[in-house]
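User: Sequence recovery, please. Input:
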């Protein structure tokens, strides 16, 4: 339970920011502020509380937590002798986390309404407090950049695991099916040779059927009922030609483009008794080739994902500025976020201008910007999905990158503050308000600028990046 305790100028002087101040200044602080005592574990501030007080810790400490739902994670701790809370010229208006007293604590509070008078009473202390705020802001921005990267890594890792699982599972299924076909192929060949020992006839059959199957155009997309009907028709045709397991062979033959007409023409070179064995061997051969093709496609998909990871993370190059193609970074970011986009049924449009000139930039930093903007856009879209457009254009000496979504839009009263640090419209604990500030700073580090325009149903971020100049 908190209580009021009387402080002396000597007590305030134990705070680093107040050390060596004239006693008149310390007395001014005592006259215009108030004190608070708290026991260990007492909650001082909750998420969403107004940010109104500068707090100097005389005794004990404060542990800050990030709160999301029922989860509470420690963020940082402020010890005795330090200043926390709102400081002069701070834009912080809402407490983002929970603050809890550590040990039996004693605090000095000064309301932010007193800051103008403080500046008149002690410009020196105001400068000290502003320096503390700047140091704190730099540390928080660095921590936020690290946390943003870790959160992005978590999202991307989950999506990447899902993306890799699909081709890996396809390879496993195809490998199992290939093993089964490899085991039966010798027997199928033996059966065929027993029914037809004429090498010339077998060569003619293979020459007619196999190349046709390879070059056959894919069948038009059929509904499950239409597909089942086609399989039944081919199975009936095969049965009429003496094939005992016609319903097992029909799907594989149709999948590789082999129809009754093609099979009938190829089988004409064989004795009727050899045709069932020939059809069985042909289905196994063509299914094997199709499975090999499936493995190749799945392997290529995995290779593409690995290449996207390398491009996105910049792991195979140095971390400095270099000549870049903007669309390469955009595509690798979209590919890394592909699972997230599909989860929300986002309709994606890539409207890239041809022959864009290169820019000079840092891949990992720019990809952080694209990730942040795309992630925010997806959050703004309705649960059933929406539209996301990435557009690139050249305008004189700049490459412009547009990211447009058709979500609810940014309210007019929020729009002027969208790039301010610590400004957020998300629930307390869900956002720090630093994501767009960091994105703006990264674009400025590239000698560009980041703009936003929004109305209901249309939000557009535009990054201006200068065209790379030739090195002298």
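Assistant: Recovered sequence (472 residues):
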């Amino acid at each position: 339970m908190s209580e009021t305790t009387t402080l002396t100028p000597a007590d305030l002087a134990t705070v680093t920011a107040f050390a060596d101040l004239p006693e008149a200044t310390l007395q001014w602080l005592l006259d215009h502020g108030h004190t608070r005592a708290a026991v260990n574990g007492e909650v001082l501030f909750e998420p969403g509380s107004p940010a109104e007080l500068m707090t100097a810790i005389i005794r004990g400490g404060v542990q800050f937590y990030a709160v999301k739902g029922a989860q509470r994670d420690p963020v940082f701790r402020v010890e005795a002798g330090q200043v926390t809370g709102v400081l002069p010229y701070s834009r912080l208006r809402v407490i983002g986390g929970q603050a809890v007293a550590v040990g039996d604590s004693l605090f000095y509070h000064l309301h932010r309404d007193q800051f103008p008078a403080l500046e008149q009473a002690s410009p020196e202390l105001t400068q000290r407090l502003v320096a503390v705020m700047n140091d704190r802001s730099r540390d928080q921005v660095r921590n936020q950049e690290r946390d943003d990267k870790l959160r992005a890594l978590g999202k991307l890792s989950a999506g990447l695991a899902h993306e890799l699982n699909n081709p890996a599972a396809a390879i496993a299924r195809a490998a199992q099916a290939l093993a089964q076909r490899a085991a039966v192929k010798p027997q199928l060949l033996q059966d065929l040779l027993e029914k037809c020992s004429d090498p010339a006839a077998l060569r003619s059959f293979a020459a007619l059927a196999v190349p046709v199957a390879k070059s056959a155009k894919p069948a038009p997309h059929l509904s499950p009922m239409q597909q089942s009907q086609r399989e039944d028709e081919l199975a009936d045709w095969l049965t009429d030609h003496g094939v005992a397991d016609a319903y097992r062979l029909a799907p594989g033959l149709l999948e590789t483009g082999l129809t009754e007409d093609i099979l009938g023409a190829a089988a004409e070179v064989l004795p009727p008794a050899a045709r069932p064995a020939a059809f069985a061997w042909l289905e196994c051969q063509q299914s094997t080739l199709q499975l090999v093709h499936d493995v190749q496609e799945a392997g290529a998909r995995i290779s593409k994902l690995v290449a996207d990871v390398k491009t996105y993370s910049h792991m195979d190059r140095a971390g400095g500025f270099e000549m870049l193609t903007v669309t390469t970074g955009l595509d690798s970011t979209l590919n890394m976020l592909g699972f997230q986009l599909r989860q929300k049924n986002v309709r994606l449009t890539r409207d890239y201008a041809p022959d864009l000139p290169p820019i000079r930039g840092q891949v990992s930093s720019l990809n952080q910007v694209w990730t942040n903007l795309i992630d925010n856009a997806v959050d703004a879209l309705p649960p059933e999905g929406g539209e996301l457009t990435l557009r690139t254009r050249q305008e004189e000496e700049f490459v412009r990158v547009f990211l447009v979504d058709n979500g609810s839009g940014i309210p007019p009263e929020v729009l002027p503050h969208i790039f301010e640090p610590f400004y957020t419209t998300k629930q307390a604990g869900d956002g720090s308000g630093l994501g767009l500030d960091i994105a703006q700073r990264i674009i400025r580090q590239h000698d560009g600028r980041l703009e936003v325009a929004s109305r209901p149903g249309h939000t557009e971020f535009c990054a201006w990046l200068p065209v790379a100049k030739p090195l002298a």
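Residues 426-434 have pLDDT under 50 and may be disordered.
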